[in-house]
Amino acid sequence: MIGGADIPEDNVIPICYKFDNSQARRIGVARAASGISTLIVSLVAIVIILSMKAIKQYPQRLFFYLTLATLIQAPTFTLEVLSVSYNRSESEQPLCSIAGVYTMYTSWLQNLIILWISVYLVRVIVLRLTVYNKKLEVFLLILFLVLPIPGALIPLIKNKYGMVGAWCWIKDFNSTDCVRHDNLGIAYQYTLWFIPVMLEVVIIAIVTVLIGAVLCVRGFIAKKYVLFQSEYRKLLRDSIPLLCFPLFFCSISCFELILYWSSLDAEPKYNLWMLNAILTPCKGILMIFGYLIPMIWIRIKDYRAKKGRLVLRKEDWRSDNNSSFLDTVSIRFQSSGGEDHYGSVSVYSTEIKN
């Protein structure tokens, strides 16, 4: 090992590891395992969504799109590891560039859909714009599928995809002698990833704070004025599950940026890289659970509300001058446990008589 690189015989181009072979292998295995877990969770989530027919409403479809993007992204974390050999030279790893392109494309696809969800939340909660445009939805979906392609292909110029840390990405060093500073590779990293992601994190963080403030104000108004309570409950029902996406995105993206800046040192921090290898693929899992748990809870609550129904029946009709009217109403309430509760209420008062 010389300067962080394995120098093979016969003057073959070396791989510039940040870690020794065993450390890099452990990090790679952890990343691949997390990717497989994300793949399984995404598949299960899609089955749940389709079985519950939870794609009829616009917010539900946004979550469905994000789940599909996570499903598409999940295999990249395994491909990144399988496309490299921890004992061979870079010249013997032709799949590394393919893995790099796939990673960049799917990562940006996921980021753009999260930005889409954040804009939707601003429209509904802050601006109170509820007008839906089907053509706009289709246009944005196609746009976000196409937009990441050029950025993912650009690093192929000058062959800038390669082994970085313990997986394939844009190289920031010169492979011939493992000198860290490669100006073109660093320029690709910042223009195609770090600067756009930092801007997105700042924008989404501001948006999230603004949304939280507006929800608090509207909650205070709804608590004070009964007229607005139904509207506020519906707003929470539709928007709260989606808020987990910008929150998780900002948190994990900030950690990834901190990891990169910490790796600028001569000695990379193994524990941080291992944590990143586990956490980054699991970002999709966190967002999926963050949405599905509230959604399933709401469905269970709705089911119990339907099961505990009110049954009204006539109890006493009186006739007066050829007219009849309802004097009292008997109420039977069936709780979720199956027990029946009875009572009666006068049409002239709200007092319930047992």
Automatic annotation (TrEMBL):
<feature type="transmembrane region" description="Helical">
    <location>
        <begin position="193"/>
        <end position="221"/>
    </location>
</feature>
<keyword id="KW-1133">Transmembrane helix</keyword>
<keyword id="KW-0812">Transmembrane</keyword>
<dbReference type="GO" id="GO:0004930">
    <property type="term" value="F:G protein-coupled receptor activity"/>
</dbReference>
<feature type="transmembrane region" description="Helical">
    <location>
        <begin position="29"/>
        <end position="50"/>
    </location>
</feature>
<dbReference type="GO" id="GO:0007189">
    <property type="term" value="P:adenylate cyclase-activating G protein-coupled receptor signaling pathway"/>
</dbReference>
<keyword id="KW-0472">Membrane</keyword>
<feature type="transmembrane region" description="Helical">
    <location>
        <begin position="273"/>
        <end position="298"/>
    </location>
</feature>
<feature type="transmembrane region" description="Helical">
    <location>
        <begin position="62"/>
        <end position="85"/>
    </location>
</feature>
<feature type="transmembrane region" description="Helical">
    <location>
        <begin position="242"/>
        <end position="261"/>
    </location>
</feature>
<protein>
    <recommendedName>
        <fullName>G-protein coupled receptors family 2 profile 2 domain-containing protein</fullName>
    </recommendedName>
</protein>
<dbReference type="GO" id="GO:0005886">
    <property type="term" value="C:plasma membrane"/>
</dbReference>
<feature type="transmembrane region" description="Helical">
    <location>
        <begin position="105"/>
        <end position="126"/>
    </location>
</feature>
<feature type="transmembrane region" description="Helical">
    <location>
        <begin position="138"/>
        <end position="157"/>
    </location>
</feature>
